[in-house]
Amino acid sequence: MIVAGFGFRTSATVDSLADAYGRAGGGAGRLATTADKARSDAMIAFSAQSGVSLVGVFPDDLTKQATITLSTTSQKQRSVGSVAEAAALAAAGPGARLLAPRVISADRLATCALASTFPEGETS
Predict the structure, then answer these.
(1) How far is CA 108 from CA 16, 18, 48, in A?
(2) If 122 and its partner were Cys, which of 5, 58, 83, 118 is the partner (CB 3.0–4.6 Å)?
(3) Cα dihedral: 121, 31, 103, 90 (round 10)
(4) Which regions of the chain are under pLDDT 50?
(5) What contacts 88, CB < 8 A, 6 or more positions away?
(6) Could you read off the pLDDT of 15-25 as tens digits, one per residue?
């Protein structure tokens, strides 16, 4: 399963999230972000618009994830290198791998990263 993880500013819109998702490649079976941001109007609307279920990830689960990207803002605010990457990995579950580093929306208000878990025995 592919999970799209998101990090975003409170001023991000549905268009910000959709742009980041499209730049990341889309195709996710689940969306994920921090538990508090999962309740934002933009994230709820994007989930409904895309028809993909949304999960909120708790801080302890975020900080356990090794990310590719190191954002000083994410590190200061969430103690993680990339909220998008960590959310994707945490929601995808044990053995998940990032498909690529996070991407940033054109308006710079949202980031998205895709992570995947593969069926046992598969590596791609």
Answers:
(1) 8, 12, 22
(2) 118
(3) -60
(4) 120-121
(5) 3, 4, 5, 32, 96, 98, 113, 114, 115
(6) 999 999 999 99
